[in-house]
Amino acid sequence: MSQNQERFLGVPVVTLNREALFKDIEERIGRGAQSTLIAINPEKVMTARKNPTLSRLIEEATYQIPDGTGILLASRLKKGVIRERITGIDTMDALVRLAWEREEPVFLYGAEDAVVKEAAVTLKKRYLGLKIAGTMNGFQKDEEKVVEAIRESGAVYLFIAKGSPRQELWIEQYMKDLPDVKVFQGVGGSFDVLAGKVKRAPAGFQKLGLEWLYRLMKEPKRIRRQLLLPQFLIRVMMSNGDKQGS
């Protein structure tokens, strides 16, 4: 890793802003390097503290993007420099746009069959002429056939919606078998949003970093997950041993 990072309870997050991030990714594509992205929010940091596998997957990713207002707050508390939230779904959209501009194909893997197909339709409408190399639902029993299909498709970008850490474990296991794929991103429920199955928070909530509040209003049962945020910030304030930088 050449780019700078900040660490929160031992979990790294890149300090690159949006423009620098995608410039760096494009440079890596240009020289044939493979890149992996994983979105980091307070919930994932707290989970990683108790889950060595998730912690390792985060550590080994090329880019750990700051997806979560709590990460920005933690950076301010630690006198860091992260000021821009880069959500997983916005990252996916930016990467699809990059693929469209470079005329490189993308592959969507995961979710239900109707959902992943509708997500592809949405992206093709958004980016006319976008090359969708293929789609496959996330209920395949033979992963080797999935890998073969992706390999034969010629995809350069692979988006996997299998939930975390399953999607990251999949990438770790099969990345070496897909040398032509240069960008791997686990996208969680992004296909559901693109397909219109799940509604994203209105733009005003997004701009203010309050998507978590919108989701909580829609799904009050999420309150237990949201309570992790104050726990996370308290632990960050108490963790004087965490050093900024790489």
TrEMBL record:
Recorded GO MF terms: N-acetylglucosaminyldiphosphoundecaprenol N-acetyl-beta-D-mannosaminyltransferase activity
Keyword Glycosyltransferase belongs to the record: yes
InterPro entries: TagA_TarA (IPR034714), WecG_TagA_CpsF (IPR004629)
GO BP field: cell wall organization; teichoic acid biosynthetic process
Entry EC number(s): 2.4.1.187
PANTHER family named in the record: PTHR34136, UDP-N-ACETYL-D-MANNOSAMINURONIC ACID TRANSFERASE (PTHR34136:SF1)
Family: Belongs to the glycosyltransferase 26 family. TagA/TarA subfamily.
General function of this protein: Catalyzes the conversion of GlcNAc-PP-undecaprenol into ManNAc-GlcNAc-PP-undecaprenol, the first committed lipid intermediate in the de novo synthesis of teichoic acid.
HAMAP family (UniProt xref): TagA_TarA
Protein name: N-acetylglucosaminyldiphosphoundecaprenol N-acetyl-beta-D-mannosaminyltransferase
